[in-house]
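Ticket 4471: requesting a sanity check on a complex prediction with heme C. Repro inputs:
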Amino acid sequence: MKFKIAAVLATIALGLPAHADGDAEKGEKEFKKCKSCHAIESPDETIVKGGRTGPNLFGVAGHVAGSVEDFRYSDLLAAANAQGIEWTEENFVGYVQDPTGWLKETTGESGRGKMTYKVRKEDDAKDLFAYLSSLSE
Ligand code: HEC
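Returned structure tokens:
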């Protein structure tokens, strides 16, 4: 019986879609502010052409922070990676509104994040998350 309950719970957890209450269409427009530093490139196509200052954001939603290969992250973001922190909606929304502050608070480490841009409104951050989630595999 115990086993059965565990199995049901696991199914529910796996079946849950990435929680997103933002508007992906608005997020797509909002992404114009990110393009100077971030591209969105899937393994087989460039979805949004962008700068190289920041990592490729394809598939970022739901993945572990700081996991784009060959990108040189700040020590703070590398710490988030080492701690297995994932880009859930909540974490993403907190991060993009205050990258360095959020990283320090969440990882408990000191230092400076490399992303200098801040999203001012929480709703915009949610829309961006919805947009990026819609592009993940
Ligand atoms: C001025 C350049 C710049 C702009 C504009 C910018 N970013 Fe960033 N972003 C960066 C850099 C650099 C990093 C790597 C940060 C680090 O290593 O601390 C980063 C990291 C990130 C990460 C973590 C990625 C990962 O692999 O874990 C997310 C998510 C992110 N940015 C989202 C956004 C969004 C959304 C926008 C637009 C609202 C945006 N960024 C605008 C430079 C920028």
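Notes from triage: The longest helix spans residues 2-15. Leaving this open until the requester confirms.
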